[in-house]
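Action item from last week, closing it out:
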Amino acid sequence: MRDGAAARLPSADDWDAARPVYVVWELTLACDQRCGHCGSRAGRPRERELDREECLCVVAQLAALGTREITLIGGEAYLHRAWLDVIRSIVEHGMLCTLQTGGRRLSEERLDAAIDAGLGALGVSIDGPEAIHDALRGVQGSAAIAWWLLERARARGLPTTVNTTVTPAAMPHLDSMLESIVAAEVRTWQIGINVAMGRAADGLGGLLQPYDLLELVPTLARLAEAGRERGVTLMPGNTVGYFGPHETLLRHAGDGKRHWTGCSAGRNGMGIESDGTIKACPSLPREDYAAGSVRDGPIAGMWSHDATRYLRTRTVEDLWGFCRSCVHAADCLAGCSWVSHSFMGRPGNNPYCHHRALELRARGLRERVEHVAAPPGRPFDLGRFALWLEPIDGQGEAVLQVPPAWERPSTAERAERALPRRLVPCPACGRHSPGEDGRCGACGYDLAEADAERSARLRRARRALVRLRVLMDDARLDAGASRPGDGA
């Protein structure tokens, strides 16, 4: 495997080949906490979870498919009897193994054993200040244990990440969270929103409203800049979207040439449930996205199944509602499919989008989610929600946004998804736009002029680099060295 974190990211070749570079594997559904936002309703193991030999066979198949990173989750992965053997096998096959955990019973002995087996990084879930985290996790003292685990991992040289799920209770405390993360010397902080699946769909209390992104995303942008100055990289999860004025800063570290290119589920990402069920994404409901179990045949065959191929072969024609007519539709494809399916009962229209909230606000409107019915109580189950379009002050007539009927079409019924268009970042407002008429679709700025200015800056930078190289060569000569190519 190529060295470095960048080498693990999907390349253009990986995209074209639909290679499952990144796999999230629910090793067991057994769990030692009862989190109020758990989409899988973890607690007890599933029936017929994969045994040691079956797990090792999965590792070998994933390596052959070109997987480069596997994240073990649960429940709690350390409650599976063969978890250390799985870590060891992943590393022996040249892949990075990471672990995502709440950490309640990840003792020093277990942590040391995982590191000895080759664990490459540790993500610890912390969802707000101590009282908020403990209430969400259903365990008194859970937050203290999580912070202690981060300290132990850092002392052993293991890279760590804090993962935070934003709920209405946690959102006002993100600034204090940053202070705690800095104090713990954690370098990466990943933030996502709570999504209506499993226990999170039992009610509306733990869920943000779509218009809350008008506050959340600028807050994340401010914290990203503050964190960068203090050695912390803030990473928005795929559930936080998309294409607003802070997109470049948040998702691509200020690189204006890059932008969101849609959900990677079924293209460069794969999910595996603990009984061997293969899905396009670990969070998606198996009823609509499971391709079968590893016990039924080779993983390569299931990776080509209609259930896993669907999301990577969609086009704009599969979208509906606001997302269907959005200027970013061909690139975004309605953002995170988990979010859109969980709230709307089908993919293709995602109300949790910053660009969308901004566009609606400009029209004096907002969208509001209403909880209609709780889910039946199974892992990865869905409730029913209604999406209302209403005046931004919440007063006046509201219009119900009704999803059209949906049945996942087969791959044979569609052509492969086209490659993303080239979107141009606007230097005036920070938004991305196709720029088909030479102007930013958001603010009207002359993008041709911006391109010319950018090209001029690039030429100046190149000239400065040439001058710097000449000065460095002269300095080496003054020190008695020879110029490259002088034959010395």
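Closing note: Residues 415-419, 481-488 have pLDDT under 50 and may be disordered.
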